[in-house]
Amino acid sequence: MLAALAYAANFFTASALNSRAGDLGQLLDSVSNAVQTIAAADKGISAITKLVESAQATARQALQTAATVVTTPASAAVAHAPVVGGAYTAASVTASSITINGTSVTTTASMTKSDFIAAINAQTGTTGVTASDNGTGVTLTASTSGSGNPDGNINIGGTITGTGLSTGTNAGTPAVTEVTGANPKREELRTQYNELLTQIDDLAKDASFNGVNLLDGDNLEVLFNEDGSSKLNVTGVTFDAAGLGLTALAAGAFDLNTDINATMTDLKAGIDTLRTQASKFGSNLSVVETRQDFTKNMINVLETGAANLTLADSNEEAANLLALQTRQQLSSTALSLASQADQQVLRLF
Fold first, then answer.
1. What is the pLDDT of residue 71?
2. CATH for 2-42+51-67+184-307, among 1.20.1330.10, 2.40.50.140, 3.40.630.30, 3.90.1150.10?
3. What is the C-alpha separation between 134 and 227, in angstroms, rounded?
4. If DSSP codes are grouped into helix, strand and coil, which group holds residue 237?
5. Are 98 and 78 in contact (CB under 8 A)?
6. In which region does residue 29 sit, left (phi positive, over 0), alpha (psi from -120 to 50) or beta (all else)?
7. Domain chopping of the chain, boundaries
8. Which of 17, 41, 126, 246 has the maximum number of C-beta atoms within 10 A of its C-beta?
9. What is the pLDDT at residue 143?
10. What tens digit of pLDDT does each residue of 135-156 get?
């Protein structure tokens, strides 16, 4: 009776051990998912870091590019002395501004030849300059008539094709005016920079595993034992461009070196943030992987312990079986001998 009770106690103990091993086995699946979720976030941070470094290279290239460029317009502004008795001939005119002897002549962005002539002649009384159609272009003639000073300058800004003065007194030479402006190459680099920020946003959204994205604000709770008393909370982050302190740049944001340097500062801070978070995720991943290995080993220990309580020793049981078989054979032999002895006695009678 005592042996039976002992075996019953072993059975229920083994059952409890197997039950706990089963519970840990179920937790092991969620732990495995947690490992992959953290690993996905870690890979995402590595990729985003490369994109931010590309943005750094773009900003650095803009900083190394000249801030301004000097260009010569296709048709330079024209400034020359009036021609007394002579003429200035242009094959075609697209005038954006005309000033004659200090008087501004009304113009449009693109004027026909007839409009150009009319605009000049409307101010002849003041400027002393007349315009006429010479068949191929426009002839500007300065005279001594009019209330303006005919010895002043005729300044025409815009497209003047066929530059030069015709023969005449005091013929002048058109002046070439160089224009200094923002370097368009820097504007191209600014556009590339904004495109990289868009790629950062897209990558952060794609760094999810099994519906959990630690780079898009999701959190992760990992349970390590069957009653939930042992666990790890992994706090997610928002690592799109805005979350890293990076914003799209407006047109002209790379024109000034000071603005580019400010952008470089933001990029450096973003990379520091990424590296700090990568270290945190790496630590979390190490903890979860360690607990995963521990849980596997614990399951093996529990199952082995249960087996030791309920499973028989095969060597011992084999020896017991052999002993029983031997006893059976001896009993059969003894019974046979006894029967033969009785038969011998009966023969005497």
1. 63
2. 1.20.1330.10
3. 102
4. coil
5. no
6. alpha
7. 2-42+51-67+184-307, 78-177
8. 41
9. 60
10. 655 666 666 444 443 333 444 4
Packed helices 2-64 and 257-310: angle between N→C axes, nearest 10 degrees:
170
| pLDDT tens digit sequence for 54-102 | 999 999 999 999 888 766 554 433 333 333 333 444 444 454 556 665 6
What single DSSP character describes residue 150?
T
Distance separating alpha carbons of residues 209 and 266, to the nearest angstrom? 29
- Structure-token pair, residue 44: 């995402």
pLDDT at 109: 52
Tell me how long the chain is: 349
CATH class of residue range 78-177 = alpha beta
Q: Could you read off the pLDDT of 39-49 as tens digits, one per residue?
A: 999 999 999 99
| Residue 214: Cβ within 10 Å count | 27
DSSP-assigned letters across all residues of 209-233: BTTB-TTBT--EEEE-STTS-SEEE
Task: With residue 265 as reference, give the H or E element that holds it.
Answer: helix 257-310
List C-alpha distances in Å: 205 to 32, 189, 211, 243. 22, 25, 11, 12
- Those residues whose C-beta lies under 8 Å from the C-beta of residue 35, and which sit 6 or more positions away, are 285, 288, 289, 292
